[in-house]
């Protein structure tokens, strides 16, 4: 097994915000709790941690290097800058898939604003990184409301991941905003391990152990 003190881990956490105008944006309910729990667990394991976080209301993990971002594009550029030096990338962030084509410089007045917003896709950060991975172990998250395992396995293959964490959201007590979770870790070789229901902190410790790169 690799020397823990030499493992550099890059973790993304939280939501992104894609602005319509300076006071309105498209986002999601992610709070960053799972990503921050993973950062804490990685630090406890002796890893070096870079944490790229969208807008969250969480205390910075002591020992991690925190890179605050807001939009998907900002998150992409920060991950892009840090990826080559990392050994493990864990993408827990709920990155917005779409953003408005036009971001208005001033607040749109309610009685004058268009009721139709044209959207464009944001950069697929995970796929962009795996397309150029050399030695990195890459772990993705699949937050789904239905057919969770099916969609997770599709994402595992299409994005060339080493592991994916299948995570059902929209149910009480698990997923977004909750302090507890229940997930299925699926490896590229087809094996899987069910984790939880338990606290996100406990699940994070197990995940770090399971995705630790071999020597």
UniProtKB/TrEMBL annotation:
What positions does the domain DNA/pantothenate metabolism flavoprotein C-terminal occupy?
A: 8-211
SUPFAM superfamilies in the cross-refs: CoaB-like
Gene3D superfamilies per the UniProt record, alphabetical: CoaB-like
Instruction: Extract the InterPro entries matched here.
Output: CoaB-like_sf, DNA/pantothenate-metab_flavo_C
Its recorded name reads: Phosphopantothenoylcysteine decarboxylase
Q: Which organism is it from?
A: Coraliomargarita algicola
Tell me the lineage of the source organism.
Bacteria, Pseudomonadati, Verrucomicrobiota, Opitutia, Puniceicoccales
């Amino acid at each position: 097994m690799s020397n823990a003190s030499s493992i550099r881990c890059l973790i993304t956490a939280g939501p992104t915000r894609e602005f319509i105008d300076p006071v309105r944006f498209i986002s999601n309910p992610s709070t960053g709790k799972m990503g921050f729990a993973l950062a804490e667990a990685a630090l406890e394991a002796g890893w070096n941690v870079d944490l790229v976080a969208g807008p969250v209301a969480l205390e910075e993990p002591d020992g991690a290097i925190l890179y605050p971002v807001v939009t998907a594009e900002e998150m992409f550029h920060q991950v892009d800058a840090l990826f080559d030096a990392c050994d493990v990338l864990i993408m827990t962030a709920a990155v917005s898939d779409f953003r408005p084509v036009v971001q208005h410089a001033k607040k749109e007045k309610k009685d004058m604003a268009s009721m139709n917003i044209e959207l464009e896709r944001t950069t697929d950060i995970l796929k962009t990184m795996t397309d150029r991975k050399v030695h990195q172990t890459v772990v993705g998250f699949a937050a789904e409301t239905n057919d969770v395992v099916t969609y997770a396995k599709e994402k595992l293959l299409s994005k060339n991941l080493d592991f994916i964490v299948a995570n059902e959201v929209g149910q009480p007590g698990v997923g977004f905003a909750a302090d507890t979770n229940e997930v299925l870790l699926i490896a590229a070789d087809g094996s899987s391990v069910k984790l939880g229901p338990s606290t996100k902190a406990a699940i994070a410790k197990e995940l770090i152990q399971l995705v630790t790169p071999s020597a």
